[in-house]
Amino acid sequence: MAFKHKLPDHEKIKYTCGWSSQHLAWEQEWKRDQMNHDNEACLREWLAGKTQKEYATQSLPEDSLQRYVKSLSTTEAVLTPNIDGVLHHGDVIQLKTQGGLSLAALPYDLGKEGNYLTPCRVTATTDDKPLLRTAFHVHSSLVEKFWLDDFVMGTFSLAVSTEQRSPKLWWVRPPLGQQGVTLADYYRGSCLWKILSRSPSCVLSQQVMVNDAIVLNHVTTNQNLAVKRNCPITTVVGQEYEVVAHSGASNSSRSVGPENLWQFVAPYTTYMFPRTSS
User: Gene3D superfamilies, per this entry (predicted)?
Assistant: First the structure.
């Protein structure tokens, strides 16, 4: 006659913790239900957080970005009045092509504080009015060294956007081949541009005049700033054109075409203060 082996009390406690098989089954089923409930709750919480994050980082900024770009395209900027025809350090100007296109900022994304983020594209627009996205501060590299306020040919210059909440600088990443121009958050060597004359006989000490044709040569890559009229871009503010830096462009007059010619545009006035009647 066979007898069932009965576990000692300490072994029973070791394997079942004092629970019967029925109690253990109930316990396992309760744990499964609890686990499923926790997983569902966690999943709902994760989905809610994900949706909230998507609305915060994608859907809402997309609408806000469109409104922001349109506000940049409708808010006029005040250009620096020019009294002597010479480009000066700190002037607020527009940069236009010989065909009348204006260099403009085209933001990709918008930050939580209402400032546009990088990378920010640089395009050329047919809108010739001075706007927040088409007006730039120009800064000379000679001011700190030689205290020269006037721009001369060969000067290394910086161009900073007029949007006060998020000022940006023109920037070209050291490339191979043709490269698009973007805006950078902070100063770096690849933000420097050299102002050159279209004439090879021009001396470097010659002053840079507003509204005169010039060539902007990137200091790091030796590329010339150019606009591609055959590459229209559809944006939220209409059709615009791609702005690039031409690879391997030399400084000789032979390589400078109409797409490489720019001019600093500023309103000209013969006096700065209102005239008084004598």
Answer: 2.80.10.50
**In the chain, which stretches have pLDDT less than 70?**
1-65, 108-119, 142-149, 160-180, 184-189, 203, 247-256, 270-278
Whole-number average pLDDT of the chain? 69
Measured between alpha carbons, how far is residue 102 from residues 55, 141, 160, 225 in Å?
A: 34, 24, 15, 13
How far is residue 202's CA from residue 2's CA, in Å, rounded to a whole number? 116
Distance of CA 266 to the CA centre of its chain: 24
pLDDT digits (tens, 9 = 90+) for 110-145: 555 555 555 677 889 998 889 888 888 888 776 555
Separation in Å, CA 232 to CA 125, 193, 239, 259: 10, 25, 6, 14
Q: SS3 for 72?
A: helix
- Give yes or no for a contact between 111 and 165, defined as CB atoms under 8 angstroms apart: no
In the numeric block, which tokens belong to residue 89? 């350090």
φ, ψ of residue 11 in degrees (nearest 5): -70, -40
